[in-house]
Amino acid sequence: MPDHGHPVTLSVSPKTSELPVAIIGAGPVGLAAAAHLLEHRFTPLIFEAGARVGHTIRQWGHVGLFSPWHECLDPASVRLLQASGWRPPEADVVPTGRDLVEQYLEPLAALPGIAPHVHLSTRVVAVGREHLDKVRTDGREQAPFVLHVVQADGQRVVYRAQAVIDTSGTWTAPNPMGAGGIAAAGELEAADRIRYGIPDVLGAERSRYASRRVLVVGGGHSAANVLLDLARLKIEHPETQIIWAIRRPSPERTYGGEETDTLEGRGELGKRLHQLVDMGGLDLVPSFWATQITRRDDDVLVTGLQHGERITLSVQEVVVCTGFRPDFSFLRELRLSLDSALESTKVLAPLIDPNLHSCGTVPPHGERALRHEETAFYIAGIKSYGRAPTFLLLTGYEQVRSIAASLAGDQAAADRVALRLPETGVCSSDLALQDADEILGSLQAAASAGDGAAPSTSLAAQPAPLGVHAVEGRETVAGVLQTVAKGGPCCGNDR
Ligand SMILES: Cc1cc2nc3c(=O)[nH]c(=O)nc-3n(C[C@H](O)[C@H](O)[C@H](O)COP(=O)(O)OP(=O)(O)OC[C@H]3O[C@@H](n4cnc5c(N)ncnc54)[C@H](O)[C@@H]3O)c2cc1C
Prior knowledge:
alpha/beta; 14 helices; FAD/NAD(P)-binding domain
């Protein structure tokens, strides 16, 4: 019988220190956490909401990563795999999401050391401390964690654990199209015409987009992938029309470092998109702040503000690539220490704040930077970055290595973090300075136009619209931007 952890119905409760370490989510970082925990002789207890491991990555399996294989593999997982005779893929080849799942995550999850501990189709719906709500302090650190899960058959089961690592990702909570982070009016009602994420435009979802007028909203790598796929679709279906709306005044940040990016795939993505825009392969709508969606016959009318003017884009399909945000709903009974803007830990926030930089050259960080007030609870993987978009797998692997070492009592090993991430070749901090003026101008124009959907005058009158947040212990965005403007160092590098 597989190891079912320790459901609370057991008549004899083991001591907290004998309990397994629970992992929420069997993505690449969750499975890496399991490998590191096994090396420290912990029993992992892995819950995966999807029917198969790598469930989220399967949703974008058609997309090529920009990291080559050697930057996609976790060292502890590779050690386990190689002991079973697995041979790593060619180091410099760049996998697709599907390759990553089939050639790496599936074999890893099937290893005899891991497979018995993976609970598929099992969604964690609540985590807390046994018999202690969030308010109770006495005995909190000694109390086991309890994880309430819902299985495929709908049954709710409770497990105990000595520690919890939440690697559940952010994919299930996409940001809305509404420019202020709140769904635009009519956005929820138009759900059947809006696709969040990265649709398989050239494969399974081809018929949905071929010969249609498609609006892509967002300025990140996901948008770049969708736009380039739509451009390929247009070659076969020339009536396909592509409209790209971004909030920023220019797409420069999406292009990134191009040739100077040390991740060739990421640079290439920016370069090809740049060429597509220059060739007129799509209609670019910059400085666009979506406020409303309405339906007219077969059309979807997306209304927004551009330089204070109300404009409407008439399309048939909308793809929203505005990023993702973490879901904390099932962590309500835990004491989290979150940055009020980014929703990462407070220590991590200034290192990854997209207001400041997009370099990806995040200083190495481990267990200490990931601590919450709730002892022995961690958020790792892409969810640890909260709303920041620059997460890389290598970061997640180092995070869980450090967490496992700390749980095992080897804090010296936990603190020995030495990770150097590939640089984008461009830091957005200088672009953010340019954007700041234009965005402020846009907000002020909207406010003075008296548009009901426009931001309020008081917001527009504020001096710094870039989400300045004077959080205790953090430098304000304005302060850091000023440092950068003066030629100061960014992301740990002198520029
Ligand atoms: C299109 C795309 C391309 C990317 N390319 C790269 C790249 O080239 N290089 C790079 O380093 N990074 C890349 N990333 C970023 C990042 O490495 C990936 O997003 C990666 O999948 C993050 O891994 P993770 O384990 O943290 O989360 P995920 O892969 O999102 O895994 C989370 C898992 O948790 C499960 N889950 C969610 N909620 C629950 C719950 N309540 N209970 C149980 N299970 C749950 C999900 O089903 C999922 O399987 C890319 C991301 C995207 C979207």
